[in-house]
């Protein structure tokens, strides 16, 4: 009875508990992403026109075509390359753990044998994932402000950095919603859910980057990366329509996942 009551209290469940359980994972992701952004951002004073001219034409669609301004450099080298990929992999890896890991181990049945609704469990897990995404974006934002003067990035306003951080958080949340939704809807294993989500992330990332090379810019609008960085938030600030598009897709994915989770047999 003591063990059962402890499990009920633990999985009663609050978002705070889920955040606490994943605190180490969130911390590692946030620090790694922030450090990467800081490192690449600090290279700006060393970038010359000649070095940017040597970038292959095929990479210009990823934002590596303008180092004449701090915003142009950051949009390509920092927020156009590795940082969004890390956000995508964070969402895929963390989302794959939210439901799929417990179901794969058989632990989900034990959790749901207690007074914990399926939708409630899913939403608490997703809220924890979103908290981690916000932590990552906040650390990146703080890293950029920390080197803003030393790295000659002063032409980018604090509002511009904030807008880019908001979109970064929403991008991670969207792919987290995709992974969580796939796991909840299908019951697939954690590696499978991660593979599907990460594969879709890389595919849409490549589509966004290479579409201009084939004269099909319109294809970019089919990818989340267009709404993440297409509006050039570092220069233009937050575009509510882009942020709303990312948030809306994430909400739909979670809603579909929750509906399917409530209507399928969890027995394995």
From TrEMBL:
The chain crosses the membrane at residues 26-47, 67-90, 126-147, 167-186, 193-211, 243-261. Signal peptide: none annotated. It holds the Pfam family ABC2_membrane_2. Keywords: Membrane, Transmembrane, Transmembrane helix. It comes from the Bacteria. This is ABC transporter permease. It comes from Actinomadura vinacea.
């Amino acid at each position: 009875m003591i063990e059962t009551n402890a499990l009920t209290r633990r999985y009663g469940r609050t978002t705070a508990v889920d955040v606490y359980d994943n605190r180490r994972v969130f911390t590692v992701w946030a620090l790694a992403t922030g450090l990467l952004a800081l490192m690449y951002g600090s290279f700006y004073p060393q970038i010359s026109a000649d070095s940017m001219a040597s970038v292959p034409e095929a990479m210009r669609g990823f934002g590596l075509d303008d180092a004449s301004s701090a915003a142009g450099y950051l949009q390509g080298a920092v927020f156009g390359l590795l940082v969004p990929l890390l956000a995508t992999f964070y969402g895929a890896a963390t989302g794959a753990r939210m439901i799929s890991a417990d179901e794969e181990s058989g632990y989900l049945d034990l959790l749901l044998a207690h007074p914990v609704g399926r939708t409630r469990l899913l939403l608490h897990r997703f809220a924890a994932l979103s908290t981690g995404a916000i932590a990552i974006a906040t650390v990146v934002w703080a890293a950029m402000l920390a080197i803003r003067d030393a790295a000659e990035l002063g032409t980018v306003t604090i509002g511009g950095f904030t807008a880019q951080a908001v979109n970064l958080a929403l991008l991670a949340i969207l792919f987290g919603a995709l992974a969580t939704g796939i796991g909840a809807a299908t019951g697939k294993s954690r590696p499978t859910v991660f593979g599907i989500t990460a594969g879709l992330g890389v595919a849409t990332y490549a589509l966004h980057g290479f579409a201009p090379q084939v004269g099909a810019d319109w294809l970019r609008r089919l990818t989340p990366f267009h709404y993440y960085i297409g509006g050039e938030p570092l220069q233009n600030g937050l575009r509510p329509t882009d942020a709303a598009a990312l948030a809306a897709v994430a909400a739909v994915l979670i809603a579909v996942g929750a509906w399917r989770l409530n209507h399928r047999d969890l027995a394995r």
